[in-house]
Amino acid sequence: MTKNTRRAQRGEPALTRESIIDAAIALLDSAGESGLTFRALATALSTGAGAIYFHVANKDDLANAACDAVVARAMAMAATLTTTTPQGRLRAIGLGLFDAIDAHPWVGAELARAPGSMPMVRILEGIGQQVQAMAMEERALWSATSTLFSYIVGVAGQNAANARIGRERALDRSTFLEALATQWSQLDADAYPFTRSMATQLRDHDDRADFVAGLDLILDGIAQEGGKSGVRTRT
């Protein structure tokens, strides 16, 4: 049996789980979920598939580890911001995760595929600790945390999915929204008064700004609920 002489050369960096995960993230970013194969990964790392299997069990394990690395970095970055209130920290977590999933669209799909896994637990814990610090009563703690969790992960994941579909279909966002807004504006005014009235906003809306507005609405509601317990929080 021949040995992998390239990896055995003096001065070559040792293959580690972390280096494998970084390479997997790069592949997922460039080629999507279907592009993450052990053959492609071995080529990128100049090693054999067997060496990779020493560090990760299978493709699902690797995809989940890559997702967890992106989530952990986003959570760590949010923790470095100079906000001092739980509400401010929750806003930072939400924005950090939105931007991370926007930059790595496959993360949203991976989170949906692996409920209860470490990336999900990491997000839940980060949100839950800050909600708890807002003096929420025990009866409302889970509902407030799960609402925030579902909003952040759900909206960020859907935004990334929309962007990915647009790229796959070679759709220009502005052109697509213009066409859709035109359709909405032509709806029956009696049957669809609200949707028709939103046509102009649809044409000009910004996904990140909409996400922030919704996040702030939820956070303000949680802050008011916490205020009933005698503690007020401000950003």
Please give a structural write-up.
The structure is a single chain. The chain is mainly α and 235 residues long. It is flat, with a radius of gyration of 22 Å. It is built from 13 helices and no strands. The chain has two domains: 10-56, Homeodomain-like (Arc Repressor Mutant, subunit A); 67-171 and 205-235, Tetracycline Repressor, domain 2 (Orthogonal Bundle).
The DSSP helix count reads 13
The CATH topology label of the largest domain is: Tetracycline Repressor, domain 2
Q: Helix share of residues?
A: over 70%
At the fourth level of CATH, the homologous superfamily of the largest domain is Tetracycline Repressor, domain 2
Shape: flat
CATH architecture identity of the largest domain: Orthogonal Bundle
Uncertain parts = 1-8, 230-235
* Gap between N and C termini: 63 Å
Averaging pLDDT over every residue, what do you get?
A: 89
Strand content: under 5%
Structural class, please? mainly alpha
Number of domains: 2
| Topology order in helix (H) and strand (E) letters | HHHHHHHHHHHHH
Largest sheet: none
Please write the CATH class name of the largest domain: Mainly Alpha
| Oligomeric category | single chain
How do the strands and helices of this protein lay out in sequence?
Layout: H1 5-8, H2 17-31, H3 38-45, H4 49-53, H5 59-80, H6 86-103, H7 106-113, H8 118-132, H9 138-168, H10 173-185, H11 193-197, H12 199-204, H13 207-227
